[in-house]
NADP-dependent malic enzyme
Amino acid sequence: MSDNSSDSQRQAALDYHEFPKPGKLEIRATKPLSTGRDLSRAYSPGVAEACIEIKDDPANAARYTARSNLVAVVSNGSAVLGLGNIGALASKPVMEGKAVLFKKFADIDCFDIEVDETDPEKLADIVCALEPSFGAVNLEDIKAPDCFIVEKLCRERMNIPVFHDDQHGTAIVVGAAATNALRVAEKAFADIKIVSTGGGAAGIACLNMLVKLGVKRENIWLCDIHGLVYEGRTEDMNPQKAAFAQKSDLRTLDDVIEGADLFLGLSGPNVLKPAMVEKMAERPIIFALANPTPEIMPDAARKVAPDAIIATGRSDFPNQVNNVLCFPFIFRGALDVGATEINDAMKIACVEGIAELARETTSAEAAAAYKGEQLTFGADYLIPKPFDPRLVAIVSGAVAQAAMESGVATRPLHDLEAYKQKLNQSVFKSALLMRPVYEAARVASRRIVFAEGEDERVLRAAQAMLEETTEQPILIGRPDVVTARAERAGLKIRPGVDFDLVNPENDPRYRDYWQSYHKLMERRGITPDLARAIMRTNTTAIGAIMVHRVEADSLICGTFGEYRWHLNYVEQVLGGGTYRSDGALSLMILEDGPLFIADTHIRYAPTPEEIARSVVGAARHVRRFGLDPQIALCGQSQFGNSDCDSGIRLRAAMEILGREYRDFTYDGEMNIETALDPELRQRVFPSSKLNGPANALIFANADAASGVRNILKMRASGLEVGPILMGMGNRAHIVSPSITARGLLNMAAIAGTPVAHYS
């Protein structure tokens, strides 16, 4: 790396910490504080009521304070990874970073506490005195053997979980990686020989974990900077090292590496030489975890052992052993059941959960975060990626269950599956709102055809459909391409086995399809030759014909291309009679709740009749999500104050809607702020029919609707479900090219609901 590049990266890191405001954390209130009434409840005199409740029953702290979701990250900065003993103050950026990871991956709030105390017993006294403030304590970057003393004292004296992540977090992730490495190598814990370098806190904890997983203590050979830890050695020894002392005349790493199945390195750079790797057993497992330079570089190890299974602590090689796979999720599970400690059963549950997830199909979200990487279980994929959103439900759920079964949970869960669903809802923003839709979709097993079946997002959605729903995916695509892309993505599904595939280049139904299309279109300029060509090349038209012929129940298309191009073929084949496109409805999931927007794609300047139909369709779909429609017709004009074009059309639509009884609430025309602010609406139009903020906005032109939709996506972190094609009997939906695999799964659930369930 050039000096200029290094300087640039250093400055970028400093800028990240300094701007736009110093540090990586801030405190935000979770309750409103805008009126005198709010103040009297938040502080005096109302706060006294919560204090009295907690005094009468300390368990009420979990009801009335943030304690049950609050972790203290405590360090004295005596052993900061890669930096050594830099002191408490200099360690603060690291501890802030740890707190950020807690929040990002498990929605746990943290205070980082840097303590200028090097005496382990005094440090333990300080930590123990913090118990009333926190639900758990994460000890961090405290040097060995002081860390053993601090943790032991705190665990004995405190009635909340105390977890030294450098020890146990590393041990858990190593345990998960070792579990899967042995599965790949076809070896067993009870049979292997382990050679380890590094007698610090992390190394000792890893060895203890491996013993709990089945490794025989006599098969573990521990080396440190002075050589083998053997019986009778006095130099640089402590009780933790002595537990692994061997009765042997051997003295060096080179002496003991012969026949080792697993090398575990938590020491320093270049400790393991290629000549030593040659002495190891067949299919050696090498965990070279020193940072930033491992005990041996992977390419050097593979030169002498091409079949080696290798993990490091670095992100630029496969199998990064990263504590973030563990600590957010083990704390999440422990906090949610009010665990008094994190015991061995919870740690092993964490090991098993992480290992199990790596053996499953990779999530679409993880694949998107790690584009270009092969995320298929095997020698180069032993543990999941930190950005796999399934970690929180799988690992935290397993930890919570283990806490309850081992008797350390003070607030046991009554429904573990409901708890896991709640955790998923915290990760997948659409999960809670989509629940009524998924439940309705389970009533009937509908066949959903995807026009762009070769797209990886579609393949992942199809995999998820088979795992999570009763729907049957049908894909349109070339078999060799679909198979190759599914394999490359690490998916288990295969065409003809797990789902039906329509091959546009060679399908036995081709003649039936082009003739059906021609019959529909022969009086609209489509010749037999053109019909044949379209049924060979146009997958949207093929999918629409399948729905027309009742070979599929609904079509999903649009992962590439322009919306109206797809709509043209959908309307050609599936339109007519009672079916007509009444607009595109997008559900935007925002921080403060859902907001539906229409028409985002179809009518540039809809007529009053089209606006009215869009309102009726929106009300129907809002109800599908278990919500009471509160629909505002939005434009520049407000309650008749302008005769602009949009205002005239919106008022005409209101008149059309008023001709019949409507079983939903709507009003207009009005500005967006009036629709969303009940107090403002009360001032400008006290007789408005809306109750509270509107949850659906209907616009008089697509530019306005689409603009609001895109602003919410790009600037308000809005998550879109849709667009939902209204008026076509749920027989087709056209998505946006930016849609994710999770978005496609949501659309499949919407398409999977029979019309009778929401009409």
